[in-house]
Each structure stands twice: as C-alpha cells, then as structure tokens.
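Predict structure. Chain length: 219.
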Amino acid sequence: MDRVALRDAVYKLEELADAPEEASFAFAQAVCQFNSLLDSAKLLYSERPDIQGLYSFSSPYVVRIGDFKDGVSRLKHALDLRPINSAGETLARIQLPSDAPADVVLDMQELEGAISLGLTKTALLLSGSIAEALLLTRHSDKSAKGPGLAQLVKQARDERLFGRDTLRGLETLVDYRDLIHPRAPVRNKTPRNSARVDAAVAALKLLCHELQDPTAQYN
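Prediction complete.
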C-alpha cells in the first residue's frame, strides 16, 4: 500500500468508526482494519515517532469505542502532518505575489498535498507549471498559449530580470518539466526524489520573492 491509498483508507475507516448507540465496544472488523493500516503506516513512516508510538489493539473484540476512535483520529492526523524541515515547510513560507492568478493558488494547494503524500513527480511538474503561470503574469504576450517556460526563463536571463540564483533555479524547473516524458529521467539523469522536490520548491520561493517587486516586468 502506498501513502495515498493508506491516507484514503484511514479517512474511510474514520467514517465507519461509529458503533450502535448502545454498544460500548468497536466492531471487531474495524479494529482489525485499524491494526492492519497502522502496520502499513509504520512501514511507510519508519522515521516518524508519532506514528511508531501508536499501538495496535491486542484483541479486536474488547476495544472500547472511545479508545478505537481516538486511535483512528491520531493516525489520521499523523498522516496529515506536513514533514518538518522539508519542501513542505518551505512551501508554507512562500508568499505569492499580489497579482498571482486564482489558479495558481489552487495549484499551490495541490502542490502541498503532493509533497505531503510523497508524490515527487507530481510535485516537480506542478512546480514548473506554477512558475510558468507566475512569469506569464509579468509578460506582455496575452495569447492563449503564450511563451513556454523555457522561453520565459531565457528572456528573463537576457533581460537580467532576476538574480542569478533565481534564474538557475528556474532553469532547473525547465529541466524538471521534461519529466513528463517517460525516458527523460534516464536521459537527463534526473530521477525524481525528495532532494529535487526541495530544489523545485526553493526555486519557487526565490521567484515569488522576486515578484513581490511590482516593477519586475518583462520588457
């Protein structure tokens, strides 16, 4: 079971956690499901003490409903927790420019979800898409397609629109956009991993900082 399926299963288990009003104990099947999901969580999150500290119920037939609901709730909230000292924390500190399109706000929310669930390829591709949308807000080309990310970054470099470190980060995002093609990771030696997600989010943070200046416009 991957992290996405695990999170969904725990959410569904919580929906089914209620026992009949007169019952003092949780359903045995529900307890068995919780134990199994907790075992999967401990395998997937071996470095997380909050998850490792949760315990399975020794018998599925004598678990009080309050204890069962508490266990499910704690596991659910642990799976929702954003990783500390990671791309997730960096993303939370990003302040979008005031002219950011509404779609970018939604994309940022999706990016946060992708990072928290370990969806590295999704996170890398979304980072490039967000950067392109932000750059287009400062470009005179208002056509339906507009310049692609590679052209936008090249023009920004030619016009010295941003700092060199920001431009290097944007060029990295251009490379990551190529991951949409099946053989790109092997061809470019850029396998998806958490370190590259960190780099992508750092590039977005630099770009958003630059775009706080309303005069940062393409000529």
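Summary: Residues 28-44 form the longest helix (17 residues).
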